[in-house]
User: Fold this.
Amino acid sequence: MVKKYTLLKKDGEARRGKLETPHGIIQTPVFMNVGTLAAIKGAVSSMDLKEIECQVELSNTYHLHLRPGDKVVKNMGGLHKFMNWDRPILTDSGGFQVFSLSGMRKIKEEGVYFNSHIDGRKIFMGPEESMQIQSNLASTIAMAFDECIPNPSTRDYVNKSVARTTRWLERCKVEMERLNSLEDTINKEQMLFGINQGGIYEDIRIEHAKTITKFDLDGYAIGGLAVGETHEEMYRIIDAVVPYLPQEKPIYLMGVGLPSNILEAVSRGVDFFDCVLPARNGRHGHVFTKEGKINIMNAKYELDGRPIDEGCECPACKHYTRAYIRHLFKAKEMLAMRLCVLHNLYFYNKLMGDIRTAIDGGYFQDFKKQKLEEWGGKA
Assistant:
């Protein structure tokens, strides 16, 4: 069974590794490109993802369960065949929707009762249902079902929620083992990552990390951050938690974030990242460059014949100017969004490649310092 993480090099706390999966090797640190409904918003295809050096695509369990339905995806041969993507896919568990749809759900021990954000129909999702949906999707990596705790939350609520998340994790593991043993399961080597929770309480986070480590999972995530706390609070929690997670397994910081956040988290031992931010920013004309983020719709770019970022090898920068892309936005042409999303995702994927090279070469701290200075707080 192919489920092996190998730590290749350390530079300080920064880790350079590889994760062998049924759908190929993931070189880490890695940024996963978010395709919520099995597509990157902004008219980006799976073929485009290969061109911009994407290693892992991330899709959303809750949303795909609603549309087109996970059973439809299974009937079509699983998510890889459905979206024509032969590299790794990670599916989140639906747990974040518990947080984001707070006005439309009730949390119970057995799971969560939702109202669909599409048509209002009632939905139930517990640990077993989440695993079943993700098994139908046949993703490479499935995430355990958890509750993403709002910030701030009382210490008493966080303690109770974390204890329930642990009980849910146990049920997830049992159900995944059952599903992987079934004859009609598409991906019988589906991997399971557990999620550390605990709000901004270091002691609860550490205790939970110790507890979930005993489950001997394929990887471990730090969840419930980037939900309103300061960057300093986020870094403090990462510093506290990472030493208590298994160092021989990949560590994933969920929903993060800015390029500067990624550099800081890599320096604290994180391997996996995801965020909608680069694609969302691109769709609104906010693009990342060597000098930081710029708004391509600003008037000063009306006659700018340079690419978005000089020296960039993305499809947008190789063929088009800032002036042209600005015109496309002003004319409300869909191509504008597509080009900027392609650029931003390439920027992130290239950044991760440069990070891996820096760790390999033993100069990551100098690389981090140089990038943060170049960006000047604008990334």
Remarks:
- Residues 284-374 form one domain.
- The first strand starts at residue 4 and ends at 11.
